[in-house]
Design goal:
The structure is a homodimer. The first copy, chain A, is α/β, with parallel strands linked by helices. Chain A is 42% helix and 13% strand.
């Protein structure tokens, strides 16, 4: 496999901007249209390969009045931003197992500007995820299965579900470090396991990292060195809890000259600083370190941040006691 | 060489708290005695191996009235904190080539509570560094040579100076990523180069990382996996510019049960938050990303942060033009 070096690049590498989708978990998907349009333009200028607009959540499960539109990603809402999207930037949406009605909510590809549907699943719901993937693939979409929370699964279960996904029509398989608990050497080991199956079935491998231990960027570029090609990032790390791999660091690292850092820096100064000033809180902080070290869901840390708790030593004892 | 795994530990690994020394570069070494005493107690409770108090700067070169006392680390000032230091925590100080008068300012070891003198040097001043090391070793100290700014040196120069240091009485040799520009795969390559020479001469290798690209922790633990044993960190990353490897992340990673995270979290909530509230500014920010990506000295970024500039796209163009 072509793994490249620090001074070369693999054209197979694709960058996925997940700012709206993972960021939507911070602000319930209430982004201004101007913000979204500017983000779209920024991604085009920066050479980003995919922009994920949000979730395709079922309106029968979620109350539409309680979320911004990017929780649902209606076709018309995306088109209001991108028109027919006559650009090289592809558009993706995420569908959670059990929370998306693919029959009803996913149009045939030739009626949609969406290019890719990524199905997010825990290990134990992979058969349901594969059902959704088959459905979306039949409708004409590029698809991936994003296996979440793998730090809580053992290798033999992971290998089993990789084989299942291998035999499905999914185009790609994602390593997802939901708890931001994985260290680079674990990511390299997992990359090897995923790539072995993916190569056999002619699929690509992607990574979605979280920054609880300031490792989202490091884990992403270590996965690149192992041969992982689809790289999730968000501008300024915007995303649930400690956030994600910062797009600006990733573009600074990648050597393909089509990637441009300048437009992303411009977007940060013009848009992201405003979000912070307006009180949106995200990114690395001590409570996330604690859930990361303990390999726990970040919800306990998110709760502490909301309450502005800074009694870190107590938080550590409390969260440790929750096993 | 024993490299250990994620679930074992090497007793040879030593953690050096450089909070006062690198942090002193942020506040001109003006730390309250209470802060320093509490940091000393915290390090003892946390199982940290060395605490670096500051520099042994020459008072003939630096005006004593313009810096806090930890720029000079007078014997009595250290003793006022640690008494005779009847603990397992060792005490280190740093001596810059050309800025320390080792003849005058370094006492014989049996008159001092200092255990280790670390000599910081660029590649081109290594012969002067070795002079200082010989002097300090003769006086009875553990010594290291910390080779700074190696991202601007080529491998053959680095190998030459490693050979020189190898033949000196230095106990350890440090990889220093002064500009926070090195990626994990470069750190692994450099670790191998350093360790080859160090092993030949029976010395240890250390790492001092900077966080310009959120890689200080990742680079440190990747160096550990390669066999590097002396690990610099600072509480809450306190240090020049983007700061250093956070001690709290490092202790969370290391598996030796003597290391305790709890006292460090307590110190952060009780002391570090106050420093921030009182206006001290340090840590990862976009201008440091820019100097890191560009492999430049952080001074340009520090200047932008001081001026509270957020025109990141312009800053990028300006700093790129400075080659």
């Amino acid at each position: 496999m072509d793994k490249g070096t620090l001074l070369t690049f693999r054209p197979q590498i694709k960058v996925i901007d997940a700012t709206l989708r993972d960021g939507g978990l911070v602000n319930n998907f209430y982004f201004e249209d101007d913000f979204v349009k500017k983000l779209y333009d920024t991604n085009i200028q920066a050479g980003v390969d995919y922009m994920e607009f949000g979730y395709k959540a079922s309106k029968e499960i979620f109350d539409k009045s309680k979320f911004g539109k990017w929780k649902f990603c209606d076709e018309q809402d995306i088109r209001d931003i991108v028109g027919n999207n006559d650009t090289d930037l592809k558009i993706s949406v995420m569908a959670d197992v059990g929370r998306t009605d693919v029959d009803k909510d996913i149009l045939p590809k030739d009626e949609s500007v969406i290019d890719m549907v990524r199905v997010a699943s825990y290990v134990n719901t992979i058969p349901a995820a594969i059902d959704m993937v088959e459905h979306c693939a039949k409708k004409g979409y590029e698809t991936t299965v994003n296996i979440m929370a793998i730090s809580h699964s053992n290798d033999s279960d992971i290998k089993q579900v990789l084989e299942l996904i291998g035999q499905s029509p999914a185009d790609g398989i994602y390593i997802v470090d939901s708890y931001g608990s994985l260290y680079p050497e674990q990511i390299r080991r997992l990359s090897d396991i995923y790539l072995e199956v993916a190569t056999k079935y002619n699929k690509y491998v992607g990574i979605h990292a979280h920054n609880n231990q300031q490792l989202a960027f490091a884990n992403t570029i270590d996965a690149v060195a192992s041969g992982v090609n689809y790289l999730d990032a968000t501008i300024n790390s915007l995303g649930r809890g400690a956030g994600n791999c910062p797009l600006e660091l990733l573009l600074g690292f990648l050597k393909n000259p089509k990637y441009k850092l300048h437009p992303v820096l411009k977007f940060i100064e013009e848009e992201m600083l405003k979000l912070k000033e307006n009180g949106l809180v995200w990114g690395y902080d001590i409570p996330y370190l604690i859930t990361g070290v303990l390999d726990r869901h970040p919800s306990g840390a998110i709760d502490c941040i909301k309450k502005k708790r800074t009694d870190y030593a107590n938080i550590y004892q409390e969260l440790m006691g929750l096993e």
